[in-house]
Design goal:
The protein is mainly β. It has 4 helices and 24 strands. β8 (122-126) and β9 (132-136) form a beta hairpin. The chain is globular and about 80 Å long.
């Protein structure tokens, strides 16, 4: 009996020491999460994504982001490293090029070169023949660590997010785990970068972002929008006009973690909300010591993403125009939308198919 008691004390002491002192990857800081308003008004829960159609992408999964070229060919990135294509008359997405890394954001330029934000490789360019070149990698002046999303302005200038310069997707067991570390730490290692492919010159427009994610240039090129996933908001950086060089919040206090951004011909933004906000994460926002302790728990006991589908359309002044949801997770972990004349293409972190909602006529 005494031996069992001593064993219990030893295990208890070991657990306490482990929870208090075991080294972890994050060094959290205190911040104050905005009080969640949940699904109110235009964000009220609905089932509009439950009837999503599915477009096959073979053995690939995780259709992260889309881009469409001048001929109507749609490209999608995947977990395997493949870029898949679907022409106007195709019924499925077919593999085209493998980047050798983890491609995330995609954008075509005016010459139909495809730019890829690859979390492992940096900013890549794939020409029409399928040749892949590294435009901006870890050794370049902007010091890319976790390339996340990309967009190309009409003048050819490229806007790229480096999600976190601390938590590399390669070193920290994948893109999702690295993003969770950045969000839990909340020190803000993300950047918005401007890159001129003609001069090869890059500059950081915004730094200190807590997981810099989706990016989209306005149709007239006067500003660029960027998602700050860990702070539940969309920012606007002014490129032109009297506010040039300044940053303002377009939408704050979103009900989920914003992922990719895409802009419509009307100047509205589609935003993918990968998963709803977590009450425990919000509660712990101003308790960095407890966040450190939780990081020592087994992964299954830490706050986890919820299977839920949600995309929203945001107007140029920040108003929520449309909200499409799937509380049942019929199509879940939604990362973004590509709006075309035929309908909405939906991307996801985990789904095995591309989602599609035809436009009702």
């Amino acid at each position: 009996m005494r031996a069992l008691f001593l064993l219990f004390l030893f295990l208890l002491l070991f657990t306490v020491v482990y929870l208090l002192f075991w080294p972890v990857s994050i060094d959290p800081v205190s911040w104050q999460a905005p009080s969640s308003q949940g699904s109110v008004k235009t964000l009220k829960a609905n089932n509009k994504l439950d009837k999503v159609q599915r477009i096959d992408m073979g053995s690939d999964y995780g259709p992260e982001d889309f881009a469409i070229n001048s001929k109507g060919v749609i490209a999608v990135s995947s977990h395997s490293g493949n870029i898949l294509l679907k022409g106007p008359s195709d019924t499925v997405f077919k593999p085209w090029v493998n980047t050798g890394g983890r491609p995330l954001g995609l954008a075509y330029d005016s010459a139909d070169n495809l730019y890829v934000a690859d979390a492992h490789m940096g900013l890549l360019k794939i020409d029409k023949t399928g040749k892949v070149t590294v435009e901006l990698g870890e050794q370049e002046s902007a010091d890319i660590v976790y390339a996340d999303d990309v967009d190309v302005a009409e003048n050819g200038v490229i806007y790229l997010t480096d999600a976190t310069t601390k938590f590399s997707a390669q070193r920290f067991e994948g893109t999702l785990n690295a993003s969770l570390l950045e969000i839990m730490e909340h020190r803000g290692h993300g950047k918005l970068i401007e890159f001129n492919p003609a001069t090869k010159v890059s500059r950081v427009l915004i730094s200190g972002l807590v997981f810099a994610n989706g990016v989209a240039v306005s149709n007239n090129g006067d500003c660029v929008f960027v998602n700050e996933t860990g702070s539940y908001r969309i920012l606007r950086y002014w490129l032109q006009g009297p506010k040039a060089g300044s940053v303002e919040t377009l939408v704050d206090n979103l009900p989920g973690f914003p992922d990719n951004l895409s802009i419509t011909s009307e100047g509205n933004l589609w935003v993918g909300l990968a998963t709803p906000r977590n009450k425990l994460i919000d509660y712990l926002s101003n308790k960095p010591f407890l966040r450190t302790i939780i990081q020592r728990f087994p992964a299954a006991l830490r706050p986890n993403a919820v299977k839920y589908g949600h995309v929203i359309k945001v107007g140029p002044t920040g108003q929520i125009i449309e909200s499409l949801q799937s509380p049942s997770g019929e199509y879940s972990f939604t990362t973004g939308v590509l709006q075309t004349a035929e309908g909405l293409y939906l991307s996801s972190l985990t789904e095995t198919d591309v989602g599609f909602l035809p436009i009702r006529k």
